[in-house]
Amino acid sequence: MYDIRQLVAIENELRQTIRSKFVDFFSVHDYTKDSKSVISRPVSSLSDAEALYYGTGLYVIMSDYQFEENKCRLITDGLKAIYRGHCYTVKGRIKSHLFNDHYRSNLPARGVRYDVCMKLDDKNGINISEPPYSNYHWWVVVHKMKGSSKMIREQAEHAFDEVFGRPLGSKEAGQADA
User: Fold this and answer.
1) Section 157-178 average pLDDT
2) The pTM is what?
3) Distance (Å, rounded) from C-alpha 135 to C-alpha 100?
4) What is the Cα–Cα distance from 67 to 176, expressed in whole angstroms?
């Protein structure tokens, strides 16, 4: 026989342990340098997005857009984290956030349709190749997490928010602005 309450307690303890590991990492990581597991790239065109890491990971979109309104504390080279998320295929997810019209109109028949995207200006996904967004700088930081589970990546998101504050465009259902 199994005891669901005991299993839930074990699962919650594991989540907290994983989150704590990510808090420790985020607290000391130098985002001005690429490493084996964390890379940063400028993105201003669809071809830039096509060159991004394809696989599983946590990603952070950085920008100087709405800099003052954004309460997130991760700032690198004058850009602030405006969104953070995770996905099994990071490249496609980034395109859904930053090149939303192109992403939606070019979705392959077997492609994943992301209906929840970065929330800016009451929009569900934006197009950084068009004004006003094209007047700003955009970078993507990717934490490569090949082999990770959804639960691990979700704990990385929670840890990111704990260390830096939730970025402006990350507005998950049921969460109030911090």
Assistant:
1) 80
2) 0.91
3) 17
4) 19
Per-residue pLDDT at 7 exceeds 80: yes
Residue 158, both tokens: 């929670």
Q: Look up residue 114 and give its amino acid.
A: Y
Q: What is the pLDDT of residue 26?
A: 98
Among 171, 82, 87, 90, which residue's Cα sits nearest to residue 133? 82
User: How far apart, in whole angstroms, are the C-alpha atoms of residue 20 and residue 30?
Assistant: 18
Give whole-number Cα distances, 98 to 8, 156, 157, in Å: 37, 22, 19
Whole-number Å distance between alpha carbons of 168 and 170: 6
DSSP classification of residue 128: T
Collapsing DSSP to helix, strand or coil, 147 comes out as coil
pLDDT band at 176 (very low <50, low <70, confident <90, very high): very low
**DSSP secondary structure, 28-76, as one string:** H--TTS--SSEEEEE--SHHHHHTS--SSEEEEEEESTTTTT-----EE
Helix H or strand E segment including 86: strand 79-87
Supply the DSSP symbol for 121: T
Cα separation, 153 vs 158, in Å, equals: 9
For 125, other C-beta atoms within 10 Å of its C-beta total 21
